[in-house]
Amino acid sequence: MARFWFISAPLHGHLDWGGFLKTAQVLAARGHAVTWISEAPIGPVVTAAGLDFTAVKRTGWLWPPPPAPDLSAIPPQEAVLLRYRRALDTWMSEDLIAEAVTELVALAGQIGTPDVIVTDPFLSAAALAAEALDVELAVCGWPAQQELNDDFLFPVQKMLGQESRDRLDRLSARFGLTARYFSGGPTPSILSPRLHISYFNAHWYQADAESILPQTLWVGGAPTPPSDAPPTWLSDLPVDWPLALIILGTVFTGDLGFFSWAAQAVARSGYVPVVVLGRNPIAPEQKAELKAALPKHTRLLSWVPFDHVLPRTRLMIHHGGMGTTHAAVVHGIVQMAVPHAADQRGNARRIAQAKVGLNLTAHEVRHGALLEGTRALTRDAQIQENARQLAADFHALGGPPRAAAALESLVSPSA
Fold it and tell me: Is the pLDDT of residue 414 over 60?
C-alpha cells in the first residue's frame, strides 16, 4: 500500500481537470492510503466522494482575488498588465505560499510523509512541499511542456515572467530549495520530471505537439454511469425532448445576460434550455428578472448531476473550463465555448481545432453568434460525428484507472 496526497486549490473546478478526483477514488478503491488536502470549503465534496479529507488553513492560492478596478478607466497597456499581475498573484503570492508550504511540511510530521504528492497544475505550494519532503511529484490535468521561448513573449509577459521567477527564487531560498519541480526559463511553471497526466489526448493538443514533453500521459476518459436516481425535474421531461446545457462553471456565474441570450438561442432551435447558475447565490430580484427573460420550458438550476443530464444533452454552451469541456467531449456533445479567463481561452481554441464545436468571443455573442452557432451545429452532421469519434478516442485511452496505474508506478517496490 502506498500513501498518496492529492492537493488542490480550494475551488470546485480544481477537483476536476477531467478526472483528478476520480483518479484519487480509483487509488483508494485499490487499497492505497489517499488523503485529499485543501482548504475547508471543499471538504464536503471530497468526503461525499468517499475520500479522506484534511483541511489546511492555506494552500497558497489567492481566492477570492481582490475586487478588480474599472479597467475601462485606465490606458489599455496598463489594463493588460493589471490582468496578468492579478493572475500571477493568484498562484504565486509569496506569503500565502510560504504559509502553505510550512503547513504541509508540518502536516507530514503529524500524519506521515506521503510517497507521492499529486497536485493540480497551478498549486505552487504543493510543488515546493514535495521538494521539501523529498517525495515524488505528479501533476494531474495539464501536459508537461517545454519552456516558452523568450523571443515569442510580449513585453508584459517578459516583465511578469521575470517577476514570477524572482518570487519563486525568494521562496526557494526561504526554504533552502532549488525549485526542482518548476521549469526554468522566463515563465516558470510546475513541472514534474516523471509524470504529467492529461485527461485529454494528443490530438486535442495538436497545435502544441512540438512543445509536449515525454512525461505526459494521455488518459482520455469516459462517462461515469450514475449510481443514483435521476433528479425529478429531469425524469419529468419527455425523453424525446433534446436538452441544451448552458453553464458558466462556479466562478463566472454573474453574467445573467449571457444565460438569457443562450437560452433564447437554443429554444429557437428546438432545444429545452437547462440553465445552471452555479453554487454562488444571486440576489432574489436578479433571479426573478432572469426567470422572466427565459423562454418556456427552461429549467433554471443551481447545479446539475452531469452523469444524469449529459446523456440527454445534445448541445453545451459554456465558459471553456477544463472540466466542463472534458465532460462534453466524453459524452460526444457538440459545444460552444465563450472563454472568460485563464486556461479557458486555450480550451475554447482546441474545441474549434478539434472540429467539435465553436470558439466565440464576447463581442460575437453580443452580435447574435449564439443563435447562428446553435443553428450551424444543429445542422452539421460532420461536426456531430467528430464529437462522437473524439469521445470514442478518449474512452480507448483508459481514463482514471490508467492514471491511477501510472501513479502507482512512481512508488518504489519498497514503499
Answer: no
